[in-house]
Design goal:
With 451 residues, this protein is an alpha/beta fold. It contains 15 helices and ten strands.
Length: 451
């Protein structure tokens, strides 16, 4: 029976310099997926690398041996000596623990920011790469698709992704609530530090395509603008830029306000009083609080956002508990499917034996009835195939259902004895499989993918 194993490190288990070294080296030299043909113990492989995690998901028949090969693969890519403390940063999950962890990752329940959506896209990219390298087969293919559906179910049945828990994200979410769609809005970022960079990422995720960056150091403004396909404006001209934007996010280190009441009041006439949304996340504040007294001006500072964040953090915890229940349910369902795989060889052997008997008897019958034409022989073929299919239907359904109840071992053994299938006709999952026509049958899909 194949085992599912996940080995990796993330923001909880390893410092950022270790994660960076592993992720960058794996990308720069060669994708670990290329090494699968050289691994004797590993059958299927997926490689996920993000800024906060590096994980390898694989299947194997001998977990400890497979884990040893994957560790050696990591060491060879990173260039670490065998005595280097890589093991102290790694976590290993086996079988249903690995499945559950993957579902948690896909649903962003294991992320640094719970509920963020970026990880699902990264997981889908990793899956596409595995498909391109042909390193996923039946088990991981089904597992990854199940992970995507679990993430979708979590998004649909909970509100875990709608609660802001960081200042930058809260600022953008607040803008979205006020304006609705942000795709046609123009954003001015004052400052080019980490907070502005994070806000730019969130604005971009919301579809904003018109961003302008103003910073005292033009070089830094240009770097940020280049990353997010934005424009730049001279810091001395940022007040004039207020005439053409809808949202202003300011996060400089200025010791006193850089935008005052009079600066905004005079420019609102030029704007014809179109609404202007200010988000001041600087400490000390960049924008004079009196600006909020102007008609059609909406000013929020970091204290306003912190209130939103605290409320949302508690709500997100509640939603995370609901999401955890969904993950637990789906893990049990996948366990049921994995358990049912042990019935596959017996079911195939049963069908093979019935088909062999049918064809032998047909040959005898046709030899005794030489007068049958092609159409008549075909009719007999169809008749006998139909009889066999209907006769085997109940035993096969019985085996599948018993397998799902966790008692498959006893009933599989009983079926093998009852139908005398223990004479070498059984089929190992790691061997060749017969041609199976029932494409919707999960059991047969396993065998087709292992040909």
């Amino acid at each position: 029976m194949p085992h599912v194993v996940l080995l990796g490190l993330n923001h909880k288990s390893a410092p950022v310099d270790v994660r960076e070294q592993l992720a960058v080296t794996c990308r720069a030299e060669a994708n670990p997926l290329q090494m699968l043909p050289h691994l004797e113990q590993v059958d299927e492989l997926l490689f996920l690398s993000t800024c906060n995690r590096v994980e390898l998901l694989f299947t194997c028949n001998a977990p400890e041996a497979g884990i040893g090969e994957i560790k050696a693969l990591l060491r060879s890519h990173v260039g670490l000596h065998a005595s280097a403390p890589l093991d102290s940063f790694l976590y290993v999950y086996k079988d249903m623990e690995a499945v559950k962890h993957l579902f948690m990752v896909a649903s962003s329940l294991d992320s640094m920011v719970i509920g963020e959506t970026q990880i699902l896209g990264q997981l889908k990219t990793a899956y596409r790469e595995s498909v391109e390298y042909r390193t996923v087969k039946t088990i991981l293919n089904r597992l990854l698709h199940k992970a995507f559906s679990v993430a979708k179910r979590v998004r649909t049945e909970t509100c875990i992704g709608s609660c802001a828990v960081s200042v930058s994200y809260a600022a953008v979410e607040l803008a979205r609530k006020i304006f609705g769609e942000l795709k046609d809005k123009r954003v001015l970022l004052i400052g080019a530090g980490e907070m502005a960079e994070l806000a730019a990422q969130h604005f971009l995720a919301q579809g904003v395509r018109h961003m302008t960056v103003a910073n005292r150091t033009l070089e830094r403004a240009m770097e940020l603008a280049d990353r997010f396909k934005a424009e730049t404006v001279a810091f001395e001209s940022l007040l004039d830029a207020l005439k053409n934007v809808d949202i202003v996010l300011s996060s400089t280190g200025a010791p006193e306000p850089i935008i005052r009441y009079g600066d905004v009041k005079s420019r609102m006439r030029e704007r014809r009083n179109r609404p202007l949304f200010f988000i001041d996340i600087a400490v000390p504040r960049d924008i004079d609080p009196k600006v909020n007294q102007i008609d059609n001006i909406y000013l929020y500072d970091i204290d306003d956002l912190q209130g939103v964040i605290e409320l949302n953090r508690e709500e997100r915890r509640n939603q995370a508990r609901l999401a955890q229940h969904i993950v637990d349910e789906e893990t049990i369902k996948f366990k049921t499917w994995m358990n049912s795989l042990s019935a596959v060889p017996t079911i195939v052997s049963l069908r093979e034996k019935a088909e062999t008997i049918r064809r032998n008897e047909l040959r005898k019958t046709f030899s005794q009835l030489p007068g049958l034409d092609g159409r008549e022989k075909e009719a007999v073929e169809v008749l006998t195939a139909s009889i066999i299919k209907k006769l085997l239907h109940d035993p096969i359904v019985f085996l599948k259902n018993k397998a799902r109840r966790g008692t498959q071992a006893a009933f599989v053994d009983f079926a093998q004895q009852l139908f005398n299938l223990s004479d070498g006709m059984g089929l190992d999952l790691t061997g060749d499989s017969p041609d199976v026509k029932e494409e919707e049958d999960d059991f047969m899909e396993v065998l087709k993918n292992r040909r």
